[in-house]
Amino acid sequence: MKEEKKRKKEEAKLQQAIMKAEAAELKKLHKEKQKWEKGKFALKSIVAEIDAKVVEMGSIGGHLLSRFTDKGLTFRIKANPIERSILWTMTVPEHLSQLCPKETVISYITLVYEAEEFCNLVSSGLMAYINKREQQQYKNPASNGWQRPPVEEALARLTTHFARVHSRQCIDEPEVAEHIVGLTCSLASCQYRKKLSWLSVNANGSIIPTGSLDRSLIKNNCWLKALMAVPKVQPRFAVAIWKKYPTMRSLLNVYMDPDKTVHEKEFHLKDLTTEGLLGEDRRLGEVCSKRVYRIFMAQCGGIRTDDVEDGADFFAT
């Protein structure tokens, strides 16, 4: 009896240890998954699928593969469906394969061509060559039947006839390799960035002048960033409004006061004082005051900001 109880006790203890180890392993996997979802393994997971024709193009292949190796990026040389193309996929680490999809295809493709083949003004030397040939043709029209290639027409067609198509002009093979490697790193990291909205683009601090004394203050305050998102509102104007009205609600209470006329609301902020660059005090002014009111009180979100400032929202149908 005693041996049986001892054996069951040991089995229960062993089972508990196994469950504890499994729980710890599962917790570790979830942490790794969170790191994956935040892009911690992005550069290790992206794989560039390079068409064999790209590697065979002169000295481009050597520079390209060397840069990929230096950066520790993974690549595969294969025959892609489109010649001279580079495709990208994101592979999930083996230990996370049970929790995440095995592979993600990145919706991006790069085509690598020589300058003369693509006729895309890869360098100013090509234009110099074309101009030189034109001059020779002008001086001696009967010399040969050379005609100027439609370089500008090809560039214009590439820009106007194709959506989401970009071209990069590189002067030599090392620059091509550097661009493709940089593009690979960007494609890896951008998969995990938060989607940007118009407000986030304009209010995340990117439009704050570098030399502004209030830059750090504005970047850490949502209300100040919202004021900075209003076109033509300078940092000192935003700070002056913030000091008088520390929240958006406090300013909107004034704008929504039924006892005030629209004219009074438009010029409500005009007498606020701002600190100039040399320490002198200046008024906010009627133009800025009216602009802030009309932007914040606009009834139609589809109207352009310039039209809102001009009062177009008052006549919206």
Give the beta-strand count.
Answer: 6
The structure class reads alpha+beta
Taking Cα atoms only, what radius of gyration do you get, to the nearest Å? 31 Å
Across the major sheet, the strand order is 2-1-3-4
**For the terminal residues, how far apart are their CA atoms?**
91 Å
Percentage beta strand: 5-15%
- Subunit organisation of the chains: single chain
Plain-language structure description:
The chain has about 325 residues and is of the alpha+beta class. The radius of gyration is 31 Å and the shape is flat. α4 (about 60-70) crosses α8 and α11 crosses α12 (about 235-245). Strands 2-1-3-4 form a four-stranded mixed sheet. Strands 5-6 form a two-stranded antiparallel sheet. It has helices at about 1-35, 40-45, 50-55, 60-70, 115-120, 125-140, 150-160, 175-190, 200-205, 215-220, 220-230, 235-245, 250-255, 260-265, 285-295, 305-310, and strands spanning about 45-50, 75-80, 85-90, 105-110, 275, 280-285.
Produce a short descriptive summary:
The protein has 317 residues and is an alpha+beta fold. It contains 16 helices and six strands. Helix 4 packs across helix 8.
Relevant terms:
317 residues, 4-stranded mixed beta sheet, alpha+beta, two-stranded antiparallel ribbon
Question: How is the topology of this model organized?
Answer:
Layout: H1 2-37, H2 42-45, E1 46-51, H3 52-55, H4 60-71, E2 74-78, E3 85-91, E4 103-111, H5 115-118, H6 124-139, H7 151-160, H8 173-190, H9 198-203, H10 215-219, H11 222-228, H12 235-244, H13 248-255, H14 262-266, E5 273-275, E6 281-283, H15 286-296, H16 305-309
Parallel strand pairs: 1-2
Antiparallel strand pairs: 1-3, 3-4, 5-6
Helix pairs in contact: 4-8, 11-12
